[in-house]
Amino acid sequence: MYHTWMRYFTPSPAHHRLGLVCLGVGLQYGRLPTVGPRTLDHHVAVVITAGRGWFQDAQGRRTTVTGPALIWLTPGRPHHYGPDPDTGWDECFVDFTGPATTTYTELGYIEPDRPVVPLSDGAPARATVGRIARAARRGNPLLEVETAAGVHELLVALRRARADMAPDGDPVLQSLARDAFQPLSVAEHAARHGMTPAELRTAVRRGAGCSPKDYLLGIRLGRAKELLAATELPVAAVARRVGYDDPAYFSRLFTRRVGTAPVRFREQQGRTVPGGWSNTVPDPEDPPMLRSPGPMIDRTRAT
Which member of 93, 150, 163, 261 has the greatest number of CB atoms within 10 A? Predict the structure, then answer.
């Protein structure tokens, strides 16, 4: 016995220009029929939250799948998979396409060469698929945009849930973030971790989807923007605080990567706050409430 629910969409050319669109969503469980052999022209993320089964690639290699796990189906790659006929599994899936899939693949969020990915927890991804399914209700005027946004969210949830990722993030990335404002080269950062520069590049690419240089640069420029917007520090002082002894080089780098000079950024974004910005992130589930002022009393009329 099994249960299957699914829905498919045909986004318009305008929606495709968003860069990522959802083509379908499904939730099913039980002793489901096998899928394939087949080849698709788009991506599918199949999330197995419980149960076990198998996946077979184009070369006939069969891999055991044990939930929670992710099965990547990518365009042009033959595949064949299914649950154990005796136990079945709990499955949800999302079909999607668009030019943004190329970038997500480059960043390591989609892994064509790793079709079966163990997950530490399938619940967050399943919850995201559930939201996509609710957005797929018939007559929803926001269907294409809402489901497309859900695909972005799903890719992030799946990346975070990978079993080879530490729950609190990669320790190498955490250490790099702590040391990001020190004037250290990539080779010096690598030596601090007992790694070669090549090993550090591999670790950062796996964890952050970019090079160590770009990872550090993103942190430095983000902090520089905060200092430019929230303080009146000279640009040279901002440069030193984020790890650049040469303010002219910092200004050229900032302008090239941000698209505007530091001084111009401050003119556009500056909002100096006495005492500086808070480091405490507000809880979106429990936002602070402004007290409404009490009723005004017209004392000129009081007797």
Answer: 150
Torsion of CA 12, 14, 17, 18, to 10 degrees: -90
What would the two tokens of residue 186 be? 């990539």
Dihedral angle computed from the Cα positions of residues 126, 128, 129 and 130, in that order, rounded to the nearest 10 degrees: 90
* CB atoms closer than 10 angstroms to residue 194: 8
Write the pLDDT tens digit of every residue in 258-282: 999 999 999 998 776 665 666 666 6
At residue 285, what are phi and psi to the nearest 5 degrees? -85, -15
3-state SS of 180-201? Answer: CCCCCCHHHHHHHCCCCHHHHH
Residue 51's contacts (CB-CB under 8 Å, 6 or more residues apart) are 29, 67, 83, 84, 87, 88, 89, 90
